[in-house]
Amino acid sequence: MVSVNHQRVPRKRTYLMCSPEHFAVEYAINPWMDVTAPVDTELTVKQWDRLRETLVQLGHEVHQLTPERGLPDMVYAANGAFVVDGAVYGAQFKHEQRAAEAAAHRAFYESQGWRFIAPSETNEGEGDFAYVPEAHGGLILAGHGFRTELAAHAEAQEALGRPVVSLRLVDPRFYHLDVALAAIDDANIVYFPGAFSAASQKVLAQLFPDAVIADDADVMAFGLNLVSDGLNVVLNSEAAGLAEKLEAVGYHPVPVELSELKKGGGSVKCCIAELRH
Ligand SMILES: CN(C)C(=N)NCCC[C@H](N)C(=O)O
Asked: Does any ligand 1 atom lie closer than 6 A to the CB of residue 76?
C-alpha cells in the first residue's frame, strides 16, 4: 500500500468505562458467545486495565461506572447510552439479560448533571449509534436490523437535534453498528461494506467517498470495534491488516489485546462510551 503523508491531529476525549470484575459468558445473545468456553476473569481484568491505561497515556479522561454483580455484560459500557453535544439519549436493551444496565447508566449521567433523555424505543446506545461531528455539519450514523429498532433512530434525532442516517445491518455476526463501522476522525469513517444492505452501502459511499474500506479479515478480528482520537486508533491487536491500512493513510494504530472480552462478542469500542460535551 502507498504511504500518504496526512497531518492527523488528535483531540482529547472523555470516556466512560466499566470494570469487568463480574464479566462472564452466562447466556448467548449473539453468535460470538459460547457458554461452554471458559473465561479467564483475571486475564479479562488485566486486559481491560491495559486498555484503560492506554487511553489515559494518550491524554484522555476516563470515568468509571461501578460494575454490578449479576450484570456480566456491563463491561460493554458503550451500549448504555449515546451522548452528543452534552445530551444523553438513554438505552433500552433488547434482551432482558441486559435490561437493568440502563438504569445504572442513567444514574451515572444524572448524578453528573448531564441532560438525560429517557428512551421509549429499543436501542443499544453507542453500539448502534456513531457520531461524526464534522461530516455534513454533524451526522449521526445509526444501525438497525438486530438490536436497535428503526423507530429509535427518529427518537434519537428528536432527542439530539442532529440528522440521523439509518443503515441496515444484514449479517448477524455484525449485530451492532460498532462492529462494522467506526469514526476514525471528526469527518471520516472506516467500515466493512458486507455488513450492510446494498442500499445502505450506497448511502455510505455517497456520504463518505474517502472512507477507509475494511475487509473480511479486519471485521472478523473485531478491528472496526475501535476508538480513535483523530490520530491514535486504539484497536484489537488481532486486526493487524486494518492497522496497516490505517497507518498507510496517516493514523497511528495502537493495538491492545482483548481476547477475553471477544468471548462476549465485543472489543475495544464496546468497552468505551464517549462523553461528548
Ligand atoms: C461491539 N459490540 C457488539 C458492542 N457494542 N457490544 C458488545 C455487547 C456484547 C454483549 N454480550 C451483547 O451481546 O449484548
From this structure: yes
